[in-house]
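During the no-cost extension, the postdoctoral fellow (Dr. R.K.) reprocessed legacy sequence entries with the updated structure-token encoder. One reprocessed record is reproduced below for audit purposes.
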Amino acid sequence: MDRVNMMVSDRPVVIFSKSSCILSHTVKSLFNDFGVNPTVYELDEIARGREIEQALSGVGCSTMPTVFIGGELVGGANEIMSLQLKRVLKPMLIRAGALWV
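Re-encoded structure tokens follow.
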């Protein structure tokens, strides 16, 4: 998990994804529609992707995508969509410095 913490610590929004996952694509599109430029790690395309996926599973994230905002684990597609429907996602992104209004 230390490796994951290093990957997310200094970036406002980080998405761990798989290139063939439609839910990952949907979440990435949502952030892009907001004007947010997330750091995206395609775990099926990078070295040690499987190792990172196992580390994420160890903290309860067994599905893709896995999203971190402001260095904090937010969750997967269900959590992101729920935050969007509750209108709390945008304020989170502003607080993390990922979005300027």
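The chain has one domain: 2-96. The longest helix spans residues 22-34. The remaining legacy entries will be reprocessed before the final report is submitted.
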